[in-house]
Specification:
By secondary structure, this protein is α/β, with parallel strands linked by helices. The protein has a single domain, classed as Alpha/Beta hydrolase fold, catalytic domain (Rossmann fold). The strands form two sheets. Strands 2, 3, 4, 5, 6, 7, 8, 10 and 11 form a nine-stranded mixed beta sheet that branches. Helix 4 crosses helix 5 and helix 6 runs antiparallel to helix 7. About 45% of the residues are buried.
Length: about 300
């Protein structure tokens, strides 16, 4: 297996073009404000970034979950962008406009990649926000390379517990549900607590990614107690009460014990996608937290 395949790639050129049509259509339909697309070169590959929001203020960088891309942040970007420049990153190794040249399987490499993205964007101080695997990426950055971080917000993140069978079953069921006809899909989306299934453009781009791209990203290993305790950055963790990824109560208790200054909230009635399911509440919480740790 060559290095590029290990890093993840589209099945062929036609598959890539098919995916990018769905990707571009999703951004055009869903992204609520003006954006500029940027490409940042790193030693690991070309990282594609969407920049929106204010011209001034401390920047906010958004990192999406596995097998997704930056368009998932459309419910957040307008509120966050009102007072901050916002950079939504297509992480390497997922179906997107980013192009990986080498695999990133080690936590140290993930932190080094993100530092190189900051360099390419000219970012000296930053608020990091991540969901799911992106949540693991921001926690990993906080423990391994925190020097530029003003704050870290992790939405139902990986890295707190070992990924178990419930999450893989959730992914499988969501994949099947995406193929169902409209009314039945709507009912199943409510049962799975996943509104993504009823946003047509988002559903199309996620299904296109699943059918055209070979992902080679391993499930993130849980951060050790020592690693978590090394986090000295202001931290906000939002957990879904019914998350299939983590047991919210034990995860919250672990963070409270290891990082007593962290803000941890369990969102009642919420599954794995807190931004979609309680967007206004989550946005208000993020803005309040980020602004409280911004430069004067």
């Amino acid at each position: 297996m060559n290095a590029q395949l290990e890093a993840g790639q589209f099945r062929n050129a036609a598959a890539r073009e098919r995916f990018l049509r769905a990707y571009d259509q999703a951004f055009e339909a869903l992204w609520p404000m003006t954006r500029v697309e940027l490409d940042v070169e790193t030693r690991f590959g070309t990282t594609h970034v969407h920049r929106s929001g204010a011209e001034q203020g401390d920047p906010v960088v958004l990192l999406h979950g596995a097998n997704s891309n930056a368009v998932q942040w459309y419910p957040f970007v307008e509120v966050l962008g009102a007072g901050h420049p916002v950079f939504a990153v297509d992480t390497l190794g997922d179906p997107s406009r980013s192009v990986a040249r080498t695999a990133i399987h080690e936590p140290a490499d993930s932190a080094a990649w993100l530092d190189e993205v900051f360099d390419g964007l000219g970012i000296e101080r930053v608020h990091l926000v991540g969901h799911s695997r992106g949540g693991w990426l921001v926690l990993n950055q906080a423990t391994r390379s925190p020097q530029r971080l003003l704050s870290v917000s992790a939405l139902d993140p990986g890295g707190l517990q070992k990924v178990g069978w419930r999450f893989f079953a959730y992914l499988y069921l969501n994949g099947l549900a995406g193929l169902l006809p409209g009314q039945l899909r709507t009912r199943v989306a409510a049962w799975l607590d996943n509104p993504v299934l009823v946003v047509p453009e988002l559903r199309r781009v996620l299904l296109a990614g699943a059918s055209t791209f070979r992902t080679r990203i391993p499930a993130p290993l849980p951060l050790t107690d020592v690693e978590l305790q090394a986090c000295s950055v202001p931290l906000l963790v939002l957990l879904g009460e019914h998350s299939p990824l983590v047991d919210s109560r034990t995860a919250a208790q672990r963070i409270h014990e290891l990082l007593p200054t962290a803000e941890v909230r369990v969102l009642a009635g919420v599954g794995h996608g807190p931004g979609f399911e309680h967007g206004s509440t989550v946005n208000a919480t993020l803005v309040e937290f980020i602004d409280s740790h911004s430069s004067p």
